[in-house]
Amino acid sequence: MPGKSSAAATPGHLPGRLARLALAVFGDVPVRAVILLAALFTLLLIAPWLVNDYLLTVLIVVLYFAFTGQAWNIMMGFAGQLSLGHAIYAGLGGYIAAVLFARFGVAPWIGFLAVIPVAAACGATIGFLAFRFRVAGVYFAILTIAFAEFARIGFDHLDFVNASAGLFLPVAQYAHNDLWHLRGNPTMFYYVILTAAALVFVLCRALLKSRIGYCWLAIREDEQAARAVGIDSFRYKMAAVMISAVITSFAGVFYAFFYNNLFPEQVFNISRSIEMILGPIIGGIGTLFGPILGAFVLTGLAEALNTSLIGLGFDLPGAKHVFYGVCLLLVVVALPDGVWPWLARLIGVAERSQ
Amino acid sequence: MSAMLSLQGVSKRFRGLVAVDGVSFDVADGELFAIIGPNGAGKTTLFNMIAGAIAPDAGSISFAGEAIGGLPPDAICRRGIGRTFQIVRPFPALSVEDNVVVGALLHSLDVGKAREHARDLLRRLDLFDQRGRIAATLTLPDRKRLEVARALATQPKLLLLDEVMAGLRPTESDRMVAILQTLNRDSGLSIVLIEHVMRAVMALASNVLVLDHGIAIAQGKPEVIVRDPAVVRSYLGAEPVERI
Question: Fewer CB atoms inside 10 A, N or C side of chain A?
Answer without folding.
Answer: N
